[in-house]
């Protein structure tokens, strides 16, 4: 009865055909370990290359695979896999419970992926699975490689490019994402023009004509790379970053004026928050600032005027409004805002495209937040490739699970 139950369990979890048998099961209660030994009858062998029947040649040296725990005991599968002789030569047959290069079963790998997605931490997950960190890291790398092979990039029309710090000392990674789906397409090391061009060429080599818009900030390297890789696409400077530049200008004005106007102390967020997000007390403080006729008030009004231009429906309309706004900036004579306006003017077309297109880096910024969470929980990444794999694992929208043979 016990043998029958064990046999049924193994056949279900490992997808065993009638040719596979459970030879023996050894349980070590002290070590909390179960070892299951399998064998093959040598019948109905199929060559993994040709897919045609072959004859038994011999059995390989015994291999082991980690499987799902049994009643709080670690479980290991052991088997001497048959080799088949066919027209392609002598080949090791495919086992139904694991990939050829893997030393964990499909079921175990799926469980590891689920735990990783729940914890976002490899060290904690390895501890829960009672396995080595390197083994879990290999599962991550293998599942990402599998997901990248399966995905299709056809139909991507709107691309976002953003930067993300990898570690201190200004070490950055370039994040390329699908602006429609809000998932990472790939990650490049650094943020240079040459590196970004190579990254974009590698990703979009066969589908460049599909891309209609590319949204990015005003980093010179990204602008040059986009113009090189997508000469026909519309370059858009993200609205979020445009407002962020103006917010920084407002805060610089506040810091300059707070030295002579004490009422500006502690008002940074009062000025930067949207009206609907301010508390009642913050509203009262804001009204006092607005009535004081300070330059920070002019800077705030210029930012709000700039936001109004986002309602433009065409490039020509955006161009007209933008030119009027630039005139208002000169009239207000707030030097910090003038500096930002001059930068906007140097990127005139990209800014106007941002004003009349709905595309933005909003989803890219949400991705950035997820990446920061992954980086914080993982306590940073020393090697770029591990950082890239972690981003694609958690933010790539990939099909990560292994498929049974």
Q: Show unreliable segments.
A: none
So what's the overall shape? elongated
Q: What is the rounded Rg?
A: 30 Å
Distance between the termini: 29 Å
In helices, the fraction of residues equals 40-55%
Number of helices: 15
Secondary-structure topology with pairs:
Elements: H1 2-14, E1 20-28, E2 33-40, E3 55-59, E4 63-70, E5 73-79, E6 82-86, E7 89-92, H2 106-119, H3 122-129, H4 133-150, E8 158-167, E9 171-178, E10 183-189, H5 193-204, E11 213-216, H6 220-229, E12 234-237, H7 239-257, H8 268-272, H9 280-291, H10 295-308, H11 315-332, H12 335-346, H13 348-356, H14 362-377, H15 384-395
Parallel strand pairs: 2-5, 8-11, 11-12
Antiparallel strand pairs: 1-2, 3-6, 4-5, 6-7, 8-9, 9-10
What does this structure look like?
This protein is of the alpha/beta class and 405 residues long. The protein is built from 15 helices and twelve strands. The protein has helices at 2-14, 106-119, 122-129, 133-150, 193-204, 220-229, 239-257, 268-272, 280-291, 295-308, 315-332, 335-346, 348-356, 362-377, 384-395; strands spanning 20-28, 33-40, 55-59, 63-70, 73-79, 82-86, 89-92, 158-167, 171-178, 183-189, 213-216, 234-237. A five-stranded mixed sheet has the order 10-9-8-11-12, with helices on both faces. Strand 4 and strand 5 form a beta hairpin. The radius of gyration is 30 Å and the shape is elongated. The model has no long low-confidence stretch (mean pLDDT 89).
């Amino acid at each position: 009865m016990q043998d029958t139950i064990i046999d049924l369990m193994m056949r279900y979890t490992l997808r065993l055909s009638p040719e596979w048998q459970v030879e023996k099961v050894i349980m070590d209660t002290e070590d909390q370990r179960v070892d299951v030994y399998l064998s093959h009858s040598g019948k109905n062998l199929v060559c993994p290359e040709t897919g045609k029947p072959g004859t038994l040649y011999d059995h390989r040296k015994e291999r082991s695979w980690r499987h799902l725990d049994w009643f709080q005991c670690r479980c290991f599968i052991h088997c001497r896999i048959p080799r088949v002789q066919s027209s392609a030569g002598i080949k090791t047959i495919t086992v139904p419970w694991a990939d050829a290069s893997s030393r964990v079963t499909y079921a175990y790998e799926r469980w590891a992926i689920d735990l990783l997605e729940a914890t976002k931490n490899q060290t904690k997950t390895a501890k829960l699975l009672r396995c080595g960190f390197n083994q879990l890291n290999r599962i991550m790398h293998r599942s990402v490689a599998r997901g990248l092979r399966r995905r299709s990039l056809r139909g991507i029309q709107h691309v976002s490019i953003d930067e993300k710090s990898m570690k201190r000392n200004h070490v950055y990674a370039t994040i390329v994402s699908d602006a429609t789906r809000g998932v990472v397409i790939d990650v490049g090391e650094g943020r240079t023009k040459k590196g970004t061009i190579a990254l974009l060429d590698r990703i979009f080599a066969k589908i460049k004509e599909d891309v209609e818009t590319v949204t990015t900030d005003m980093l010179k390297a990204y602008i040059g790379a986009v113009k090189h890789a997508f000469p026909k696409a519309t370059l858009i400077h993200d609205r979020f970053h445009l407002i962020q530049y103006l917010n920084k200008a407002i805060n610089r004005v506040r810091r300059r004026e707070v030295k002579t106007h004490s009422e500006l102390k502690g008002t940074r967020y009062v000025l930067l928050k949207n009206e609907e997000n301010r508390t009642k007390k913050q509203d009262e403080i804001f009204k006092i600032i607005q009535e004081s006729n300070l330059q920070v008030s002019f800077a705030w009004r210029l930012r709000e005027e700039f936001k109004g231009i986002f309602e433009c429906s065409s490039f020509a309309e955006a161009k007209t409004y933008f030119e009027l706004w630039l005139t208002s900036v000169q009239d207000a004579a707030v030097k910090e805002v003038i500096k930002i306006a001059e930068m906007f003017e140097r990127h005139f077309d990209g800014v106007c495209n941002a004003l009349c297109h709905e595309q933005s880096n909003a989803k890219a910024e949400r991705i950035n937040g997820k990446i920061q969470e992954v980086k914080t929980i993982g306590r940073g990444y020393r090697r770029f490739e591990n950082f890239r794999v972690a981003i694609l694992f958690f933010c790539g929208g990939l099909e990560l699970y292994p498929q049974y043979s």
